[in-house]
Amino acid sequence: MVTYTPPLRDMRFVYHELLDGDALAEIAQYADYTPDVIDAVLEEAGKITSEVLFPLNLSGDTEGCTLKNGVVYTPKGFKEAYDQFTQGGWTGLAAAPEFGGQGAPAALHFLVQEMICSTNMAFGMYPGLTEGAYNAINLHGSDKQKALYLPKFVEGTWSGTMCLTEPQCGTDLGLIRTKAGPQPDDSYKITGTKIFISAGEHDLTENIVHLVLARLPDAPEGIKGISLFVVPKFLPNDDATVGPRNGVTCGSIEHKMGIKASSTCVMNFDDATGWLVGLPHKGMSAMFTMMNTARLGVGIQGLGLGEAAYQGGLDYAKERLQGRALKGAESPDKPADSIIVHPDVRKNLLTMKSLTEGIRALSLWTAINLDKAEKSEGAAERQRADDLVQVLTPIVKSFGTDKGFLAANLGVQIYGGHGYIHEHGMEQYVRDARITMLYEGTNGIQALDLIGRKMGAHYGRYLRAFFHPLQEFIEENADNEEMQAFILGLAKAFGRLQQATGILAQRGLRDPNEAGAAATDYLNLFGHVAVAFMWAKAAKLAFNKKDADPTGFYSGKLKTARFYYERVLPETSSLFAMIMAGGDSIMGMEEELFGAAVAA
Amino acid sequence: MVTYTPPLRDMRFVYHELLDGDALAEIAQYADYTPDVIDAVLEEAGKITSEVLFPLNLSGDTEGCTLKNGVVYTPKGFKEAYDQFTQGGWTGLAAAPEFGGQGAPAALHFLVQEMICSTNMAFGMYPGLTEGAYNAINLHGSDKQKALYLPKFVEGTWSGTMCLTEPQCGTDLGLIRTKAGPQPDDSYKITGTKIFISAGEHDLTENIVHLVLARLPDAPEGIKGISLFVVPKFLPNDDATVGPRNGVTCGSIEHKMGIKASSTCVMNFDDATGWLVGLPHKGMSAMFTMMNTARLGVGIQGLGLGEAAYQGGLDYAKERLQGRALKGAESPDKPADSIIVHPDVRKNLLTMKSLTEGIRALSLWTAINLDKAEKSEGAAERQRADDLVQVLTPIVKSFGTDKGFLAANLGVQIYGGHGYIHEHGMEQYVRDARITMLYEGTNGIQALDLIGRKMGAHYGRYLRAFFHPLQEFIEENADNEEMQAFILGLAKAFGRLQQATGILAQRGLRDPNEAGAAATDYLNLFGHVAVAFMWAKAAKLAFNKKDADPTGFYSGKLKTARFYYERVLPETSSLFAMIMAGGDSIMGMEEELFGAAVAA
């Protein structure tokens, strides 16, 4: 059976030492979040996640959700765990104090999220979706809507959903057909079918509040004719108690590869009463303002599963006795050596460790800038921070989930055949991680976002928010003897990224398919460079601190950094070559020839 | 729902055109296997797999196997399908005519196996394990054992298993504890517990014949003290009917990530009667002689699932309407374009197609040489063929399954969120494919086999069996104008492989951990070069034939070859750099530092 220990040492390292998390306390709204408060919250989060959520992870996967007579039942123990979770205030961690929340920085929230995803990603979907609904109403709702719904979300007594896609849509929300008919009062009648609605129906809360994209009768065609509505399962009374049942029902729940304890519902809206959120026909822009946060949240899911898989793999590698070290027995008194003596097992572990810790740093850097973008005093600082968040969001989402899935698979590989057995808990990580590459925009869509929207925006301003600090770091450390290997490796990989960027900007202007054909490789190249930047910074710190450190933490950081530079970062060389090869071999294949070899 | 069409056109291409499959008919035992017979068998195999096995694939996964009172029930329809399968003679396709088999070449058998794995890999485990047992007894059993068991295996009325591992063993079979006590007659009493026994118990056949590794009382410790026994579920009467039940029972079946319709059993042997197969203490060498074939079979599983996933992804990419082509609508009359217009979707499809077809060619080349190694007249020719099989076996197993798993995942990616839903059938391919990287020796073990056993054997003779024809091809085509891009790309990648081989041979002598730390990357580099060789040969044929071909088949081949060279093969550049970086960063990390970041 897998185990989990909250990686608090590394979380403190990235927050307090590697990045300027502590500077967030200088922002008025975050003044309470001093280093000791951060550590205390992390410790408490570590407890509830490892002690309450983690023990329900495997059983929740085994049991799954069940639908009976329109009611969805979550697995055994989930309701009790959810109550403990809400009573601990975790549903309001990042919410505004005026609605009962604790107003914590996103940076802290992200680290807590990681622990939730490591220990029970399926459970995390329920409060996670509520946070999305909170954000939607907080950013776009009326004061009355805010006053009604937000305190309920913070308490956790009502939960939320995001009802976007429909069977014919997928990513293309311009194809939405759900209708909203205006009523004599200020309400609307919503009719249509939504699919893939996470937490659409469940037994954890007294009410479920759906945020629904639909078309008004006079709506323009396509993406510009979509409005956002709030549609509660039970209509709220004036005193914020729940009133009569609304015309929204769960038609079925999906049988999925993973996150089986998270209900994924087909939701039928049948003349359901709803209210407009924000302006008519502006539903998509309301969605877009939240999408960045949601995508970062999915990246964190990948990170959390990567960490869990690493811990699972490491435990097993230390305990499992099999074979002998290639240079002779290391534990001659035992029947066999533990498999951590084998180079290939170590390589898998270090791949997981270097990617997971690197992505943790990259995600936290993004989160800190998310906080600064919203709360910093100076407009220039806010913009610079937001620029960085814009460019890093698709990276954290795609690179974070690609590598989380990789780590989950390497974890299974370390277990050998036992990794394939349900009871050990490792194969669940693979199945759970697989969804993160698909939802909130597939990873291919993220790559298009990076290359199509983010790369050229404001004449490359978003990119510069990332390129400049990296370039500065290289220059600052160019003469630092002990940093030479890292600076050379970073400069080389960064050079590839800059060159690819320049060439793709030119080619993409001439032919958008050229940008599209390179997009995934480009994002992957970008992700490797971004994580290399984090590791170079970590290495510099580690050089300074390792001699005074009896725990070996910094020495381990330095060795992991070196592994990343020698055995992971070289992937940029292939990615660069593939990008340079261009899109002709991709676009030149006639559609009918794809199937020519299959034909009889 | 996914569909499947047997890729007969490509199978005929690799067998008759690309490779010298037809030359096998010059071998006396294969004289019947003329081109038209090959095609007829492929066609029939295509029918039974697509019409009988494929419709049971998803339902078999949903239902799984059940154990009640010691009896394992396979999913609904499996027994009827199995009876059709045996009545069609498929259980005896590659078996010797003297035991009722059809004596088909391994090359044909492999192509049929691919179709079985594409359509119902879990079903294929039952006859697949029987073939393993057939080979064990055929190669090492007494004449009496052969006469008793082999006709039953060929008929399919009795099935077989391979009982190797135990809870404490995994790959390290030296740790086996199962005991065999000699009896006054020529039998033994077998006692012990075996795990992960595929087809260990089921309801498809009247008897199940276990091939069991166990220790005789006087056995030396470790790997050199293991003997092989045949232990039938029901003791055979002299007239080859089934007699009394033997002391072997199924204790439990595993809950697995995939291949759920294949029973994976814990088998308890409790004073079970068995008979020695081959010589005392020589069980491991008996196993080794079969292991190559078994490993190739697992590679074919990866290939089969890759093909199935490709077809699933291609269907969906053509049918699914969503978004618009980047350069403007391609189907303006429809609400959206089909997603195959998008470069990233095409890139995923071409990655799957180029790897699957390339690995099909590589596997068939291996299979043809397997036939030549066993049946060719000249000893030199047999040895050259066997050398090639030796070196290609770990490649087909690991590269084939790594890329099969990749293809299964790309297939899901093309489906987007729908790929995560069980009913569509795509996520099953991922779960089924995952085991192929683990069993018959994890892919890491294959890499050690390549670099540790195969690379240096006979002063590099195995390697030369691959390097020489590749080198000759490059030289022969050096002046071929239209082949320039392929020859240059192949020579460059081959140069990397040769250089890596030379350096690793040196480093590995000095420090075996250096070889171990490079093994997986080296195998991956080797696999890319081997598939590049297949594609270069295919491209040469396609250049010659495409103008006279109205179907576009050769044009498609040429374009797929180009894609492989431009967008897949460059991975060799990274792999080379990672190998060159050496193993210090892997072996230099102290065991306790792996967990330093996790600590509180």
Describe this structure in words.
The structure is a homodimer of 600-residue chains. With 600 residues, chain A is α+β, with helices and mostly antiparallel strands. Among the domains of chain A are: 133 residues, Acyl-CoA dehydrogenase/oxidase, N-terminal domain (Butyryl-Coa Dehydrogenase, subunit A, domain 1), CATH 1.10.540; 129 residues, Butyryl-CoA Dehydrogenase, subunit A, domain 2; 133 residues. In chain A, the strands form three sheets. In chain A, strands 3, 4, 5, 6, 7, 10 and 11 form a seven-stranded mixed beta sheet that branches. A two-stranded antiparallel sheet of chain A has the order 1-2. In chain A, strand 8 and strand 9 form a beta hairpin. In chain A, helix 7 runs antiparallel to helix 8 and helix 8 crosses helix 14. The longest helix of chain A has 37 residues. Chain A is globular. The mean pLDDT of chain A is 96. At the A-B interface, helix 1, helix 7, helix 8, helix 9 and helix 10 of A face helix 1, helix 7, helix 8, helix 9 and helix 10 of B.
Provide key terms for this protein.
homodimer, Butyryl-CoA Dehydrogenase, subunit A, domain 2, 600 residues, Butyryl-Coa Dehydrogenase, subunit A, domain 1, globular, two-stranded antiparallel sheet
Would you kindly provide a brief summary of this structure?
Chain A has helices at residues 8-18, 35-53, 57-63, 78-87, 106-140, 143-155, 283-319, 343-375, 379-415, 426-436, 443-454, 461-476, 484-510, 512-545, 553-568, 571-580, 584-587, and strands spanning 66-68, 71-73, 158-163, 179-182, 187-198, 207-214, 227-232, 234-236, 242-245, 248-253, 264-277. Chain A is α+β, with helices and mostly antiparallel strands. In chain A, the strands form 3 sheets. In chain A, strands 3, 4, 5, 6, 7, 10 and 11 form a 7-stranded mixed sheet that branches.
